[in-house]
Amino acid sequence: MLNIFKKWRGSPDLSNEQIINQEELLKGEIPNHIAIIMDGNGRWAKKRALPRIAGHHEGMKVVRRVTKQANALGVNALTLYAFSTENWKRPKVEVDYLMKLPEEFLTTFLPELIEENVQVRVMGDKNKLPIHTLKAVNKAIEETKDNDGLILNFALNYGSRTEIIAAVKDIVKQVESGKLKKEEIDEGIFSNYLMTQTLPDPDLLIRTSGEIRLSNFMLWQLAYTEFWFTDVLWPDFNEQCLLQAIHTYQHRGRRFGGV
Ligand code: IPE
Ligand code: IPE
Ligand code: MG
Asked: Per its Swiss-Prot or TrEMBL entry, what cofactor is needed (predicted)?
């Protein structure tokens, strides 16, 4: 029973699992779009008697490593949940720090992202971001917009319910103005009104830190995504964890309702 449970959760203790070789993994199918709920920064810090923001700082370094690895593996899009519409509820010092992180990340790594042909995107309600955060984000988007390598899509002040309601309102507006016919609305049209727009749905969703929930993340887009959960806290996530997740993905049977 314990083994079944562990398998389902992913691999909390990698030492008990088979080590995955990247070359071997590349012989199989690499997910086109990976989405990650990067969770557990606060608990990582708490375990070390550090302030929560130390966990966020450490987590940022992992973003860099995972981006590099995903790019090297040939993943086309990596969506990272960085800040939810509910995260404003946190203490002001923590929110202020989280809003400084995109600047810190992008100032330090933008040249590297450009060099690696990464295209930075941001989905979420950008209007509510502090001006300094918005500036850093817009600069990165602008300077990488012509890159055609990995799409690094940050979900920043993102909430899936808000996203869906905004899409509905936009569609209603289009219908009212006669630009769109009610009969034309289908799944494809609806998807184009979401913040992911033309990005394909994620093939693989990873959530760290042992929480088994979506926390308002990509509710529409994850309809047929494969889920992989691990107890590893985000600052401890490493290259081997990503390989484990993809390895598990490669052994799943995706049926999309068929046989
Ligand atoms: C994830 O780590 C980062 C954000 C949500 C911004 P948490 O800050 O949620 O860490 P825990 O869940 O409290 O450990
Ligand atoms: C989800 O994590 C949001 C991000 C990772 C940015 P939370 O830590 O905010 O989620 P809950 O509150 O545990 O559901
Ligand atoms: Mg959390």
From this structure: Mg(2+)
Q: What amino acid positions are annotated as catalytic residues? A: 39, 87
Query: Taking each helix axis from N to C terminus, what angle separates 52-73 and 92-115, rounded to the nearest 10 degrees?
Result: 20
Counted domains in the chain: 1
Residue 163 forms beta bridges with which residues? none
φ, ψ at 80 (rounded to 5°):
-120, 125
- Which value, in Å, is the radius of gyration of the alpha carbons in the chain? 19
Q: Is there an atom of ligand 1 within 6 Å of 209 CB? A: yes
- Quote the pLDDT of residue 6: 46
Measured at the CA of 89, the angle between CA 85 and CA 94, to 5 degrees, comes to 100
- CATH code of 127's domain: 3.40.1180.10
**Does residue 231 fall inside a structural domain?**
yes
One-letter identity of residue 155: A
Give percent above pLDDT 90 in the chain.
92
Q: Is the CB of 58 under 6 A from ligand 2?
A: no
Neighbours of ion ligand 3 (CB under 5 A): 39
| Domain annotation covers residue 99 | yes
